[in-house]
Structure prediction request, 177 residues.
Amino acid sequence: LGEKTPRFYELCVSLSGAMVSLAMNIPFDEACLLTARAIENKSALKKFCEMVEAQGGDAQRAVDLKLTGKDKPCYTLTATQSGYVKGLDALKCGEAAMLTGAGRLKKESSIDLTAGVLLSKKTGDYVSKGEALATLYYDEGNADADINGAIKRLMEAYTFSNEPCEASPIIIDKTGI
Prediction:
């Protein structure tokens, strides 16, 4: 299905672990172990597919990248300089995604469920000049999409430093568990 990125994996295990802890009335750490096992043995993916189908969706589209539009036109945003990603403006990333067609600027605009932005470099990562920062997926035929605007907005989202930068923690605090 794809590579396991440490920060996203930590987020998934922590959030799912919190829900399992509350639902089963077990300690958070134990719930996180159960969650990690379910991800590793793919029973979590199987349950996800069952939930997609129960809601009338096509589970195969959720797991087969060829069906999700990842093979459609894309633009790779590359770094204009070497250094560390100091910051990444979430609002500008969201606006860039909207401009690819993944969101609406106006109520009557359509949403392209296969459009969007895949970030390759995040805060704290080192990047060399010319290296990929992100990939923008879009449909050239979508009149509501503005790929040039999306590229500009996403480039504005990144700030760089010559000094190493620490990524902010993925989980800041936990309450109620």
